[in-house]
Amino acid sequence: MPKAFSKPASSAPLEIPAAVITTKQRAVYEALRGEIMGGVLQPGEVLVIDALAKRFQVSIIPVREALRQLQSERLVEIRAHTGVRVTPVDVSALVEIFALLGALETASAIHALPLMTSADLAELEAILQVLESTAASGDTAGFEQANRRFHLLPCRIAGFTRAEQGLQSILAEWERLHRLAFKGTQPPSPEQANKEHRAIVRAFRQGDAEKLTQVIQRHNATALSHYQKLMK
């Protein structure tokens, strides 16, 4: 059991430093997020704050903060007078999810384009190499992690913190939808995805805003089309 969940020796109220609360919050958040993403906590399932605090052997403060963080990723819903529940999986949101991914990725990339340094391009290349090696070895989890880094990097370069937060939230929602609604289905070709990733890097190197926009939009449209076909 992580130290963050260890039970105090005394039952008397303790004044917990902020750093410790943050550590406990992170531990609760990661545990609940993993269970939601993995389907252990089912869509629509009610979460009781007091029960979670007892389970994790923490006060209700880190539990509430963890739930707020999960709410920002649309993984739980917090409603006044009705409590907290795991957000239902909404397959009908597929088109909206990819539309938002395309819009945020395009806006961030275009604003990052004139700010790109040789170090930034080298970092994109390094991530692309990870994408290609994980695709070749069949490491799905590694590919997904590298893919997330690849698409979030332009937000950081552009200084688009809101876009980055939005992308993280949408990617989390998509990851859960993919795992639960499309479980066992064939994903899009990682090799084709990496051809598009390499085209994105090439457009960054050439400073070609029009080409960059086209490739990003095609990248998302290809993935959307793949999953729409699976729904028929």
TrEMBL record:
SMART domains per the UniProt record, alphabetical: FCD, HTH_GNTR
Q: What does the record list as coiled-coil region(s)?
A: none
Q: Which residues form the HTH gntR-type domain?
A: 22-89
Which is an annotated GO molecular function term of this record? DNA-binding transcription factor activity
Q: Which InterPro entries match?
A: GntR_C (IPR011711), TF_FadR/GntR_C (IPR008920), Tscrpt_reg_HTH_GntR (IPR000524), WH-like_DNA-bd_sf (IPR036388), WH_DNA-bd_sf (IPR036390)
One Pfam assignment: GntR
Region forming the signal peptide: none
Record keywords: DNA-binding, Transcription, Transcription regulation
- In its keyword annotation, does this UniProt entry include Transmembrane helix? no
Q: What is this protein called?
A: DNA-binding GntR family transcriptional regulator
Which organism was this protein described from? Answer: Prosthecobacter dejongeii
- Lineage of producing organism: Bacteria, Pseudomonadati, Verrucomicrobiota, Verrucomicrobiia, Verrucomicrobiales
